[in-house]
Design brief:
- With about 475 residues, the chain is α+β, with helices and mostly antiparallel strands.
- The protein has 3 domains: about 90 residues, Uridine Diphospho-n-acetylenolpyruvylglucosamine Reductase, domain 2 (2-Layer Sandwich), CATH 3.30.43; about 110 residues, Uridine Diphospho-n-acetylenolpyruvylglucosamine Reductase, domain 3 (2-Layer Sandwich); about 210 residues, 3-Layer(aba) Sandwich (Vanillyl-alcohol Oxidase, Chain A, domain 3).
- The protein is about 25% helix and about 20% strand.
- The strands form 3 sheets. Strands 10, 11, 12, 13, 14, 15, 16 and 17 form an 8-stranded antiparallel beta sheet that branches.
- Strand 7 and strand 8 form a beta hairpin.
- The model has no long low-confidence stretch (mean pLDDT about 95).
Length: about 475
């Protein structure tokens, strides 16, 4: 079947031949595979997809896109591609950095350097070989760049803060096709913006970030049947605000499908799960967890484990997955909030949600570190994230309705702010920042991308440009 190119897509033909031929246009045999994000429920249809291997490839693509009057959307895995798809990609060159995955570890300086398309598993394994750990996420196949530029909440977050504030340098190709380095001594304003401001300022080709001397952690999960949800959630809600910074946990309502990949004791069941990690000796960790263990979990896996194992602690799906979701930040977890959650997803609920998660915040996440970036803190007590599997259009529609119903029911306790890494639908990006940080981000965007060449999943507009979501 012959595909008729739109006028915009015809302009994209000028990019053909770049990246050693790894530029795919609509109708090309490789286009459909190249445009596919991690969340395969999303239908990305850009004017072209470029898969660079080198910095010079990225520069050539950015310059060619500008000459053709096209915008550029950087993307590594496409875990948070929903806002991009919702905005339309007809005049966009999608720059997928998945072939740029080089990693080097400087164990003496405790610094990792990764290319722009590296996944967390690419860095955590070699770091662990040096008895070091990164502030990685809860899944091994998440892209380091997108996670880190948007904040980054991992299992050490309440002790060590956001991953973005452990970045020590970012290298990127800017709108004029130049390759620049931003760190504490050069392009300082840009470095500030990149640490929390997302992919609005260029195509990231490399990042450097601090590693920490963590070889092991006391980590695992506590599991109960869903019919125990009320007593477990109320105990966790009493425990979490007073817990020491050394511990970071999440509470989840899970409806697990009967799939062979799921461990047999959990397969096909409705459960409540508390998982997380404690930094400290075994005696300290056991003391921290004693109040939760007193509830008599059916399964208790908390123990001293290698830090490298924490990338898979959360059992997040790996590989392309169809999903729909919604999230919010809440300021408290009192009796009324708990009653609402139980009504939505507690015992007897008919919700289609696979997981409803409350991520424990506070600690270092609520304190601005010296020399922080655009996202200094997350001003909330809990991050809520609800997700459903979207294997069919009908399941996607029902899952999205149920996710929105869940977050809508929590509106009375919402902080009004967003954690944009958990916002997989289009939101007003200004809700991710303080007023002063938002204004500064807009100014830096104006300076580095005056023609709005780059399209990020969560858009920071230029000065005097409206950045609000319009219906």
């Amino acid at each position: 079947m012959t595909t008729t190119l739109t006028p915009t897509a015809r302009r994209a033909t000028s990019l053909a031949g770049l990246c050693d031929g790894a530029v795919h246009l609509p109708g090309d045999p490789g286009y459909d595979a190249a445009r596919m994000p991690w969340n395969v429920a999303l239908d990305q249809r850009p004017a072209a997809v470029a898969l660079p291997r080198t910095v010079s490839d990225v520069q050539a693509v950015v310059r060619a896109a500008a000459a053709a009057g096209l915008r550029v959307a950087p993307q590594s895995t496409g875990h948070n591609a929903g806002p991009l798809v919702g905005r339309g990609l007809e005049d966009v060159v999608l720059v997928r950095t998945e072939r740029m995955r080089g990693v080097s570890i400087d164990a003496t300086r405790r610094i990792a350097r990764v290319e722009g398309g590296a996944l967390w598993i690419d860095a955590t394994e070699p770091a662990a070989d040096h008895r070091l750990a990164a502030l990685h996420g809860s899944s091994p196949d998440v892209g380091i760049a997108g996670y880190s530029l948007g904040g980054g909440i991992g299992w050490y977050a309440r002790k060590l803060g956001l991953a973005s504030n452990s970045l020590t340098a970012v290298e990127l190709v800017t709108a004029d096709g130049e390759h620049v380095r931003a760190d504490a001594t050069q392009n300082v304003e840009l470095f500030w913006a990149l640490r929390g401001g997302g992919g609005n300022f260029g195509v990231v080709t490399a990042l450097e970030f601090r590693l920490y001397p963590i070889e092991t952690a006391y980590a695992g999960m506590l599991v109960w049947d869903r019919d125990q949800a009320e007593r477990v959630l109320r105990r966790w809600a009493d425990w979490a605000p007073e817990a020491p910074d050394a511990v970071t946990t999440s509470f989840r309502f899970l409806d697990l499908p009967p799939l062979p990949a799921i461990p047999e004791p959990l397969r096909g069941r409705s459960l409540v799960v508390i998982d997380g990690a404690v930094l400290g000796c075994d005696a300290e960790a056991r003391g921290v967890l004693g109040m939760l263990r007193g509830l008599g979990p059916e399964i208790d896996t908390f123990d001293r484990v290698p830090a490298r194992s924490l990338t898979r602690l959360h059992m997040d799906p790996e590989g392309p997955t169809p999903a729909v979701s919604d999230g919010t930040l809440i300021g408290e977890l009192g009796d009324a909030t708990i009653d609402t959650l139980l009504e939505q997803v507690g015992p007897g609920s008919t919700s289609s949600l696979l997981s409803t998660e409350l991520r424990q915040l506070g600690g270092a996440l609520g304190r601005a570190p010296e020399g922080h970036g655009a996202l200094a803190t997350i001003d909330a007590a809990y991050a809520v994230f609800a997700v459903a599997i979207a294997a069919t259009p009908e399941l996607a529609m029902q899952g999205q309705l149920d996710a929105h119903a869940l977050t809508g029911s929590l509106e009375p306790w919402s902080t009004g702010r967003s954690y944009l890494n958990f916002a997989e639908n289009e939101v007003d990006a200004r809700t991710g920042y303080t007023e002063s940080a938002w204004l500064q981000l807009k100014g830096i965007r104006s300076a580095y991308d005056p023609d709005a060449r780059f399209l990020a999943n969560h858009r920071v507009p230029r000065l005097f440009e409206d950045g609000a979501v319009t219906e």
